[in-house]
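Could you help me review a protein record that somebody else here produced? Here is the record exactly as it was handed to me:
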Amino acid sequence: MSQERYPVLWIGQVAVASLPEEIDVTIADSVREELLAILDRGATLLIADLSKTEFCDSAGVSALVQAYRRARTSGSLMRLVISTPSVQRVLSITGVDRLVDTFPSVAASLAGAPGPVHPADAAIADTDGGA
């Protein structure tokens, strides 16, 4: 297969994919293809790390939803790490944050903290001096 475009950390069958600072129509297809390829490689849990992502348009949201749907049909889980207010807002407006569990950090997503983190909770966590 193709070489990974974005850094992916594998911990057993858990994959943490670090996504770019901007996910827009120009790269959404490559983000989607990368996430799908990770699932095709046998990830039982895919963590899409958007902690450094400052902008995500509708094409980016669509890429995330398509990866989530593939994960569900293949029996895998998918979680999103969201720490920027702008991305939290887009996912809240589109309802994606109610579809896919979101977490304020990779550590929290790996620990499997129960339930999704809502944007207000993540904003509070960010002001508490998180690293």
User: Anything to note?
Assistant: The radius of gyration is 13 Å.
